[in-house]
Amino acid sequence: MTLSSPTSTGVAAAGAVRAPWYRRLTRTRLGLRGRMTLSYALTTLAAVLVLELVVAITVWIAVTQTGLAGQQILGPMRQTAKLYALAAAAQAGPTALDPRTTFAPGQPASIAIPAAYFPSGNAAIRYVSGPAADHSTAPFALLLTPAGRVLASSNPTRYPPQSSAATLLPGRQALIASALAGKPGSVAGRVLSGRPVEVAEPVLGHAGTVLGAVYAQVSVSYPANFLRGVTGLLLLSVVFWSFLTLPVGALFGRLTTRGLVRRVNELVTATARFAGGDYAQRVPVARATDEVGQLEWHFNQMADQLVASMAQQQRLVEQQARQEERARIEQELRTARQIQESLLPKAVPSLPGWELTPSYQPATEVGGDFYDFIPFADGRVGIVIGDSSGKGIPAALLMATARTMLRTAARATASPGAVLARVNDLLAGEIVPGMFVTCFYALFDPASGRITFANAGHDVPYRRHGGDVAELRATGMPLGLMPGMRYEEGEATLAGDDTVLFYSDGLVEAHNGAREMFGFPRLCRLVRDAPPQTSLIADLMQDLAAFTGPDWAQEDDITLLTLRGTAGTRGNVGAAPAGAAMDGSATRTLAEFSLPSVPGNERVATERVAEALRGLALPAPRLERLKTAVAEATLNAMEHGNEYRADLPVRVRVRAAPDVLTVRISDEGGAPIAEPPVPDLAAKLAGEQSPRGWGLFLIRNLVDEVRVGGDERGHSVELVLRLDAAGRDQPAPAGTE
Amino acid sequence: MPEPQLRLDVRPVAPTASIIDIRGEFTGGAESALMEAYGKASGERTRAILLNFGGLDYMNSSGIGLLVTLLIRLQRQGQRLLAYGLSDHYRQIFELTRLTDAIGVYDTEAEALVAAGGRGRR
After folding, report:
1. Which ipTM score applies to this complex?
2. Do strands A354-361 and A369-375 pair parallel, antiparallel, or not at all (unpaired)?
3. Which residues, other chains included, contact B31 with Cβ-Cβ below 8 Å and sequence gap of 6+?
């Protein structure tokens, strides 16, 4: 038993409903233009066929429904009858017809006429022997006597000789009588009437006497081959015209639809591209008056409106996104500020004889500044000021972490350096590389005025004592950069009228409209010159406002913290700025030489300078420092000035006066070179500065003075060593003196 | 003209510490040699690298730049850099450039090793 699958046929039926072949042909093979061309060609063909049909009907009517056919045969018929009459007259006697006359060819007195006599060659007229459809229309000819009797008959069976014509042809008496009276006559019958064409011709003797008459009739029912011929001709004509008109119609169709189809195609292409996302698509409007023109115009209108609508939509979306982004940023800023502000001390410890005043002015984007007070049971108080790297929430979180660690570590040990070292180790394992916290931590005893402190890369506080300002300097790396750091500890005893200003870099790094920085010298001067009775913080903020102007956008948090004595003097620590010295006279040149710019020659320069100075008996450490400075200056000259071109010399001149020694190193470098930024190890470790760039810094710190100059040949660096300044043999980091 | 000469030798002295002995001229040209030596000195457990400057003849500013580059690498690895055997002059230069903030500087190998060993800090 075979089971047919009902689903297979169902699926096939549902899956693809196949259109009839002609639809598929016109749909798939032919485009619009093809179809229009085909339509033109078919229309032309139909017109030709209709025309042919009209012609055929006309011909048919003319041939069959009029007497035209009869008229057409009448001429030859009369001619034939006349010839018969002449032939009969020629064989007749003077007064009467030859009784032996017959229509049988080859017989004596035959009136048979050769076919050659018929000028048209129309054999159909040889009716005498033609076939008879019926007796009334069968072609025949009779020779009649004047009495109206048959003398000779082409159809003796039907019309036997001696019979009376009047009897045989009852309807033809008038015609026959007319002929026997000497007047020829004829009747042209119509095909459909069934009447034959009949002629009667008198046979005239010599004297013009009537000897008899010839009567002949022939059916006008057309021969079949004539109609076949006409039909064939018509068909041929149809084929001919079809062949002629089809290509013409097609060509005409193609030519006339070309413009239209091109425009429609342009519309199709533009619509497809527009749908594909090319919203700049427009079509030229060729003629706005026709339907395609209107379609083009409406397409352009629709495209314009769509583009406008999409742009509007896009604007809305972007606006919304901007608003959301702004809201998110604002939320983040709020969060960061909340974190930060929640961690700042709510209350300031009150210290007998001392006044602690904090001021915190956050930037729009939280900068990570913080300060903290850690009170201890013995009356001492820990003072923390710091700044975490970065901005926003990361900075706030880092600050929160550092603050907590500092509090914890400060409880565990009394040494500020150990506190910072501990926090540094903890942070270094926690935070992402490149982030760090700068921090200054001081432990202050209000009873004695003693302050011990350590610094992790923070700006050092200024201490105002009497009319002078000194720094509470201690060195150490920022917290979190790398573990295992040591932090130098400093110590001072504050006098009762001293003021210490702790601050963050937001103050000194504030810029004005001319991109000038507030800077340390200005701050130092302001601290020194501020009247002791007024609030230093208020004065500083006022000076800052005057410096930056009213339209200032604060770039970083500004934190200021003052510790001010309100009682009498307890101790004294001073700061001594370095003085200036003058060059001496009576200068001698100890050496002058030049060296090609080749790596390694900086050591040759140092050795030769050292040799030239042998007589001066400089202390060894001082000579070592000068040698290093000479090496660095020579390196700079060879590398930056002469670009290590061996043909360009570095010139060295060593001169000595009684109180000053100068070493001048010159290159051929032309324009002066911009000084690199002051190297900062923390910035270098954090990737903010190149690891290199120490040369000029070393030079400046190894000799008493550096004079940078130059001429049209190149630049020069003059290293100055004051010979009476032998006490400065131990260079220390600036500011700790 | 003197040829720049440098010799670096790596001595693993503890599971967590290695010494690089520096002899000769420590300049910018020493970069590839120093990084190669560091590669040898640094293992998975290494926590400290000790630089022995006892044989140092000459160091210039690009040598200092090189030390900063090495410090950055160590910082990423969570390792410490210590130094000993520096002459007074170069010790002063270390202080001047504040390299002493980032590099523990000791007089002798023994002191440096104690410091590298971990807790022996003030």
Report:
1. 0.90
2. unpaired
3. B66, B69
Contact state of B89 with A429 under an 8 Å Cβ cutoff: no
Domain for residue A259, yes or no? Answer: no
pTM (global) more than 0.90:
no
**A402 in any annotated domain:** yes
State whether B65 and A731 contact (CB < 8 Å). Answer: no
Same domain? For A538 and A684 the reply is no
The secondary structure of residue A679, as a DSSP letter, is P
Q: CATH number for the domain including A598?
A: 3.30.565.10
Least CA distance to B67: which residue of chain A?
A: A691
Nearest Cα residue to B49 out of B23, B24, B25, B84: B84
Query: Do the domain assignments include residue A172?
Result: yes
Show the low-confidence residues of chain A (pLDDT under 70). 1-19, 22-30, 63-70, 72, 105-109, 112-138, 189-195, 219-227, 567-586, 670-674, 711-712, 724-737
Question: How many residues comprise chain B?
Answer: 122
Burial class (CB in 10 A: 0-12, 13-18, 19+), A151: buried
Reading the block at residue A472, the tokens are 């509470």
Q: What's the pLDDT tens digit per position in A409-436?
A: 998 888 999 999 999 999 988 888 778 8
Q: How far apart are CA B112 and CA B104, in angstroms?
A: 8
Please tell me the predicted confidence (pLDDT) of residue A9: 41
CATH code of A362's domain: 3.60.40.10
Asked whether A111 and A88 are in contact (CB, 8 A), the reply is yes
Structure confidence by residue, pLDDT tens digits, A592-616: 888 888 888 898 899 889 888 887 8
Tell me phi and psi for residue A87, to 5 degrees: -65, -40
Preferred mutation among B26, B27, B60, B99 to probe A, highest tally of A CBs within 10 A: B60
Domain of residue A606, residue span:
588-728
Beta bridge partners of B18: B12, B49
| Rounded Cα gap, residues A184 and A200, in angstroms | 6
Contact (CB, 8 A) for B24 and B3: no
Buried b (16+ CB within 10 A) or exposed e, A12-39: eeeeeeeeeeeeeeeeeeeeebbbbbbe
A679/B97 touch (CB, cutoff 8 Å), yes or no: yes
Reduced to 3 states (helix: H, G, I; strand: E, B; else coil), residue B52 is strand
Go through the domains of chain B in sequence order and give each one's CATH number: 6-116 (3.30.750.24)
Question: A551 with A594, same domain?
Answer: no
Q: A692 burial class (0-12, 13-18, 19+ CB within 10 angstroms)? A: middle
Rg (CA), chain A: 68
Q: Does residue B77 sit at the A interface (CB-CB below 8 Å)?
A: no
Query: For residue B26, what is the nearest residue in chain A, using CA coordinates?
Result: A600
Q: What order do you get walking across the sheet with A185-187 strand by strand? A: A150-153, A140-144, A210-218, A197-204, A185-187
Confidence check: pLDDT of B1 > 80? no
Looking at the 3D structure of chain A, how many domains does it have? 3
| Other residues' Cβ atoms within 10 Å of the Cβ of residue A244 | 12
Is the CB of B80 less than 8 angstroms away from the CB of A602?
A: no
**Interchain contact, B60 vs A684, CB within 8 Å:** no
